[in-house]
């Protein structure tokens, strides 16, 4: 099940990744303002990416710790897309899968292709 899909902006690839507030319903913060997500990447490796939610009336969630390493490992840039999916992998201990996609123009048409790890 897809939790979010977002085209990356400059702040997303340089600082932190923000995503829609309605996605918070899929995450268990257990009374805290952060949760460490155990995420499987496209190579099947486990990553831990911290999700913070801002305090106050506007709880805009952001991915922080671990996010920029994912960006660097996959060579992500502005205009690429990040997709977070709900997917339990009991052997790996992950609850989510993260994918990176890049727009491809082929024969005049556009499609999204999966980005492979560069490092």
UniProtKB/TrEMBL annotation:
InterPro entries: B3_DNA-bd, DNA-bd_pseudobarrel_sf. It comes from Salix brachista. Keywords: DNA-binding, Nucleus, Transcription, Transcription regulation. It comes from the Eukaryota. It is found in: Nucleus. One of its GO terms (cellular component) is nucleus. One of its GO terms (molecular function) is DNA binding. This is TF-B3 domain-containing protein. Its main location: nucleus.
